[in-house]
């Protein structure tokens, strides 16, 4: 089995759904099976917001933002967006269809009652290795590095560094040695 970064990130500008299709798809070999021993997923499979992996994901996003010229302000972790992202990761794991939850909520307008304000974007990566703590941390690093490698105009990259975004929801679902990652981005709320 291979893990891949979905190459079709979505970004919603108020009332308009704009699909950005990235040019690259990335694969790496699955490194093992079983749940990550240090991770303690909840009954829903998601990691709690205080989890070291969620914090690592946030820290890496903010490192990339700080490296921009001029630097983009750090993203704040948002519980409501993380809840939305968890549903996205669960659907991605169950169906292997990227952005299904995000697209449905965007089309119905429900996205604007789910914690998003002004703007919205989503990055997802399905089925990356997560057989141990170090492998899971490495997978988060690899996913985000490959998203950034798209460069300007690449949807994943642009979502990570966009100054339109001030908050992020992070959902990392680990099952059977695999990681499904969803980062949902939003502008600030009034």
Can you walk through the features of this model?
The protein has helices at residues 52-66, 79-95, 100-108, 133-149, 155-161, and strands spanning 2-5, 10-13, 16-19, 26-29, 76-77, 120-129, 167-175, 178-186. It has 190 residues and is α+β, with helices and mostly antiparallel strands. The strands form 2 sheets. A 6-stranded mixed beta sheet has the order 3-2-6-8-7-5, with helices on both faces. The chain has a two-stranded antiparallel ribbon with strand order 1-4. A hairpin with a 2-residue loop joins β7 and β8 (178-186). The longest helix has 17 residues, at 79-95. Residues 1-8 and 10-45 have low confidence and may be disordered.
Summarize the structure.
The protein is of the alpha+beta class. Helices cover 34% and strands 24% of the residues. The strands form 2 sheets. It has a 6-stranded mixed sheet with strand order 3-2-6-8-7-5, with helices on both faces.
Give the SSE map:
Elements: E1 2-5, E2 10-13, E3 16-19, E4 26-29, H1 52-66, E5 76-77, H2 79-95, H3 100-108, E6 120-129, H4 133-149, H5 155-161, E7 167-175, E8 178-186
Parallel strand pairs: 5-7
Antiparallel strand pairs: 1-4, 2-3, 2-6, 6-8, 7-8
Helix pairs in contact: 1-4
């Amino acid at each position: 089995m291979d893990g891949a970064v979905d190459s079709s990130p979505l970004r919603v500008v108020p009332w308009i759904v704009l699909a950005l299709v990235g040019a690259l798809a990335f694969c790496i070999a699955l490194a093992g099976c079983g749940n990550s021993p240090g991770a303690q997923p909840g009954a829903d499979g998601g990691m709690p917001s205080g989890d070291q992996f969620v914090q690592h994901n946030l820290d890496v996003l903010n490192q990339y933002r700080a490296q921009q010229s001029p630097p983009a302000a750090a993203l704040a972790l948002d519980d409501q967006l993380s809840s939305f992202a968890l549903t996205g990761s669960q659907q991605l794991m169950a169906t292997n269809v990227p952005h299904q939850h995000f697209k449905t909520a965007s089309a119905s307008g429900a996205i604007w009652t789910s914690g998003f304000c002004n703007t919205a974007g989503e990055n997802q990566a399905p089925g990356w290795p997560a057989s141990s703590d170090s492998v899971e941390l490495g997978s988060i690093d690899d996913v985000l590095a490959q998203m950034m490698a798209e460069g300007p105009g690449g949807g994943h990259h642009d979502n990570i560094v966009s100054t339109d975004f001030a908050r992020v929801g992070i959902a990392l679902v680990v099952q059977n040695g695999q990681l499904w990652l969803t980062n949902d981005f939003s502008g600030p709320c009034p």
